[in-house]
Design a protein that fits this description.
Distance between the termini: 20 Å
Radius of gyration: 11 Å
Largest sheet: 2 strands, antiparallel
Shape: globular
Number of helices: 5
Structural class: mainly alpha
Number of strands: 2
Low-confidence stretches: none
Protein name: DUF2384 domain-containing protein
Strand order of the largest sheet: 1-2
Number of domains: 1
Mean pLDDT: 91
Length: about 70
Amino acid sequence: MRKLLSRYFSDQDIAYIFSLLQPWAGDYEGISAWLEKPIPAFGYITAIDVCERGLSKDFTVYLAGINSGGFA
């Protein structure tokens, strides 16, 4: 996971993202797999694609929203 996200986020941000994903995506393998799946909220592009398009902050806000009871 760190390898996938280190181009877009600091180590501190990656730790925060892990804390958001871990409760429902599981371990590093599950999180890495989830990062490669299309996200409907972003037009069915992957999390990595979202970050590559310069929307890494939006991605983090999206994850925080899911953790506070929002829809994925």
